[in-house]
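Example 3.
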Amino acid sequence: MIFRELALAVWISLKTSGLAALVASALAVPAALFLAGREFRGKRLILVINQTWMAAPTVVIGLLFYSLLSRSGPLGRFGLLYSQTAMTVGQIFLILPLIVGFSYTALRQVDRRARPTALTLGATPGQASRVVLREARFALLVAVLAGFARAVSEVGIAMMLGGNIRNVTRNITTSIALETAKGEFRNGVVLGVILLVITLGINILVQTGFRGRDRD
Amino acid sequence: MSDAVYRLENVAYRHPGRPEPSFRLAIDALAVRGGEVLALVGPNGAGKTTLLSLFGFLVRPAAGRLEFFGGDPWADGDRVVAARREAVLVTHHPYLFKGSVADNIAFGLKLRKVPGDETGRRTREALALVELDGWERRPVARLSAGEAQRVALARALALRPKVLLLDEPTANLDAALGMRMEALLREIGSDRGTTVVFSTHNFSQASRLADEILYLSEGRRVEFSHENLFSGRAETDGKKSWIEPRPGARIVFAGVRRGHVTCVIDPAAIRIAAAAGGPDGPGGANVFHGRVTRMETTDAATALVRVSGDLVFRAALPVQELEARGVSLSKEVLLRFEPEAVEVVGERPADGAKPA
């Protein structure tokens, strides 16, 4: 496996999973804010569904989107199957419940007095919501990074929706699968180490840079 | 009254999502004048904090009309935000945002777009008022409960609101600091013309600080202090009823009641005499034994005596009778009052019972 190919696989992993984490966070955090701030009929059911969805195997989500995006599927005319877009969309659906769940827990742990305090000091409802998010910023960041880590390390969706096309949709995990299947264990291990280094880097970032600020 | 800051008409509030019978605040009529210091006095659950939240526009009345400077602050979203900016609430256990003391004080000022140098000046000024000069850079995570309460007060003072709402403002402070904070509240009310509404359990504090005192019991305005105010689940024999605020301490009153009852006994209706050879002797209904733990005079002629036993009572009697009845500090005494002297001021279905 040449270096360029390796670097491209790393880049595709970071790009698709990073984008998936960003889009999923943009949907999941407001949803968690809504769920954490209100009591309503059916909320428990939503949380149970979310938890169930969280445990869904990646291949099941891959299969679901495969049936949607395949040529004969309802979204087949968009020609998205075996593309980075398909990988990203699949990963969004994979990590969405995870980020909702983690963010919900994070926001529920924010002191219940934070919002009324912001309101009485003159904040608009929107500003008060931002205060609540700010108070939970570290835990929310952990939720987003956990989502990214899940996306970057999954293989089922990338394989089924990306198709493991060389230099196009082949990412770290599908490369590992391929290299292992070929008997090139050394390459597989190198890619695995790269994946671990990325995850380690994220963790160091969380533990040092953000946690220190959060303690104040 | 044209200078009313607040005007309430038949305002009622019920905690959302709670089934009947749930706590409900109901104020038929109330006006709070500009520059007035109003104390809300009552036992736990009386509705003091709820009324402060209504005054701070953090909760919306379920019924009735609440006017603020003659207008309806709940008419639209902008108005309610504007009203909140004029009426700032400092809660009993205030929440401080993560960051420094200065970050917290600057929060409301930034929302009001106060320039940076003015923010710094007001921060220093507010901290000086609560005797925390130079604490700007301290992380709030390291503050004690009392310090946090003072920072929260400074955070509100820096905003220079027209109305300051304080929920038990001296609850977390030691006695000496509490007195100094009382002096500050007097200054805010009298010198700055800020309308101050505060809640307290302490009737003496209310008397010292307030122009007006609003007594609350079970969510309703009552026309007396919370002295000799007792509550409990009523039982009845069909003619008289009684509650036992503490096991074995039975307060008997006329009429048939079966719910959770709050009652009050006028201190002047309580007869008091030394325990040995007292005129009424032990036994019978509404006879309580205790020790005199405090004596004070409300005016030149009347003494108010606190007697602590199974229950704590205050009894009022003419000063010149103290000696004749053998009442002095630390003395064992007997108290007696008639069932008819017990006035039931609140009744709600007992817990678990269906509403009538």
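The longest helix of chain A spans residues 3-37. The mean pLDDT of chain A is 91.
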